[in-house]
């Protein structure tokens, strides 16, 4: 745990008692703050009380007593409207912070010999893979890397700091909205495409949140920015003109005068006086597809910025085991491979997965986002058949009508079973891909639960007589 300093002897309100809120509450108490906690969900309050936290109804509290409100990132700050705790805090002049902000302040106030280095990663897609990949590269090179934030552990639940540690943090736009003091040694902005507009109001609000990862960087810091989309291209141009830090553009398809890029799967390092080919990413089995080339370029560039040699960085790339729920092969039955890409919660992420295969049996659906799947229409010819689940199944069927074969399946088990029956009936290698292009909350608690349901359905299928016949 990282004890949070700066609130010794003062009251801090904590709202939202999931993983982030509970971890932050413990860290605040460890640093000497007096924490009062609340959640609109009775289960969250029960868990907090079971841990011995002081649970107080913040609607009835005297907000003039609070030094700060720690807000969990899942709670609306501005849109579609501010949460009632945000309104109360603003009325009382109480500052609103997130756990990343508490982490940043604690690091900034530490003596120089104890201050660790920080790599921060954001983007609409690829941030979890890039975070895990960079952490793996650092660990493979013998560095003390701690991985957390929006992936794995809440940042304040990671081991306490020391001067030789490197914190590798995935940051969502919700977390960045609540952060103002973070100064990463290496900041990665992978890409920006429309997402979470209900929480940011519009595209400009979403871009502004993502851009906050670069807010405090200066001399000696490195900004690593994808230039494969127009939003990030603009940001890269603007901050390059400001010339306050080292800028390393990254690309998954463009040769550049300076930066790190991939062409046809070959990773090139153009950060020095010469351009060198670093790795053939075809040999990195956990990094398939053009989108993963961008992730690899970003992680490699960040590793260099954090002091690794090109050989150390490239060796780590090639041994990365991959992440669950992100283009993860969970099983192969005969000629049929099952790929779990449950993390694809929007069409841009699903595009990356669908683009990786020439022929695919596609499991899609859930709680649809604005626009549905129409912008994937150029990939419909790759779909042998779609197996539709969840709230979106009928809307997706209307989009696919006359353009790709589909079946309304409703639930995961039905979809997996039907897809296997079709894929196994051919004499060709086949891929069954779960890449839903939707949120998961209609049927599952999160994308991980959805991915586990897919995995379990596949494992159960593997025990059937039909699967045994295919293996034989």
Structural class: alpha/beta
Strand order of the biggest β-sheet: 7-8-6-9-10-11-12-13-14
State the low-pLDDT regions, or none.
none
Return the average pLDDT rounded to an integer: 94
Outline: globular
Helix content: 25-40%
Strand content: 15-25%
User: What distance lies between the first and last C-alpha atoms, to the nearest angstrom?
Assistant: 51 Å
Number of strands: 20
Largest sheet: 9 strands, mixed
Number of helices, where a helix is a run of at least 4 consecutive DSSP H or I residues: 16
Instruction: Give me the Rg, rounded.
Output: 23 Å
In brief, what are we looking at here?
The protein is an alpha/beta fold and 472 residues long.
